[in-house]
Amino acid sequence: MNQSAKITILGAGAIGCTMAARLKLAGCTSVSIIARGENYQVLSEQGIYLQDLTGEHHIIPDRVVSHASALEPQDVIFIATKSDALIHVYEDIQSILHEQTLVIPLINGIPFWYFYQNTTQDQIKPIKCLDADQRLIQHFPLSHLIGAVVFITATLKSHGRVESKNPYLLILGEPSHQVTPRITALQNIFTDSGIEVRISETIRDQIWTKVIANLSSNPMSVITGATLKDIYSHPYLQSITREITREVRQVAASYGARVSIDPDTFLKLGSEMGDTRTSMWYDYQKKQPLELKGIADAVIELAEHYDCPMPMTRHICDLTQYLSEQSRKI
């Protein structure tokens, strides 16, 4: 697989637009975006404007469509939506799959497929808050799935206009914890993209690392309005952040995950992100539903299985949910 691969990005928010722009800058010749509504209109007419550490770029995707059915079968499909949207998009992509298509959800939190390791659907333990009726486990194209952990901080200023102030990192891994030819081929398309891509044989360990980052910062940002720098370093907030980090690490360890970054280093790295605001804070400002199921609810559900207490995490998430519900009533 190389830059001639047919690539589709479903979702044109900050991550989707950044991914499309960087792949086009890498020389990929068939990058399509599936967008809806005004997003579709703007991207069709104006393309993507990306400002990042490498400068300012104006990128025109090869195709912008409103439905997957407008495309031929694709080699790679990146799903750059909120995790809640997966239930609405898996049917949409069926028409653009071929036998070798790779499907990579670029989502935060614990994924619905966490317990999938190339087993049959009826053998997969569901995470109830993510897939209560097991529709995703039963119908999502799991054999095409590649796990991903996204360390891309980008802000959507307006439709198609994205700003990012930090380096890009994407970690890819097979659910089976193997390094396969297909995942190596997928890594190759990012050559010269400006996105560092690492392959992990233990993708679930990487997922937990990102979950700790999300759960220790996103809800706190809604409650306090603080940036990452203050969330991880301000004396009034750091003790709370440290305790959430400790609680989530305990859950991760219960499931055999190894988080290589110790809490002190985690706080240091978080504070070094500077005056960056979380995506959840932006969603809260826009009075949009918050992405708490994968980031918080799933972790708490998994914790209950091993009787792991998470009092601080629960309190902070309850406050966050309350504020979100109240803001959307106004």
UniProtKB/TrEMBL annotation:
- Domain Ketopantoate reductase C-terminal, residue spans: 203-321
The first-level EC class reads oxidoreductase
Give the E.C. number(s): 1.1.1.169
Q: Pathway it acts in? A: Cofactor biosynthesis; (R)-pantothenate biosynthesis; (R)-pantoate from 3-methyl-2-oxobutanoate: step 2/2
PANTHER family from the entry? Answer: 2-DEHYDROPANTOATE 2-REDUCTASE, PROBABLE 2-DEHYDROPANTOATE 2-REDUCTASE
Q: Which organism is it from?
A: Acinetobacter soli NIPH 2899
Ranked from the top, the taxonomy reads: Bacteria, Pseudomonadati, Pseudomonadota, Gammaproteobacteria, Moraxellales
Q: Which segments constitute the Ketopantoate reductase N-terminal domain?
A: 7-174
Which segments does the entry list as coiled coil? none
Q: Does the keyword Oxidoreductase apply?
A: yes
Per the record, the domain of life is Bacteria
Q: Which reaction does it catalyse?
A: (R)-pantoate + NADP(+) = 2-dehydropantoate + NADPH + H(+)
Keyword Phosphoprotein on entry: no
Keyword list (alphabetical) reads: Oxidoreductase, Pantothenate biosynthesis
Put simply, this protein is called 2-dehydropantoate 2-reductase
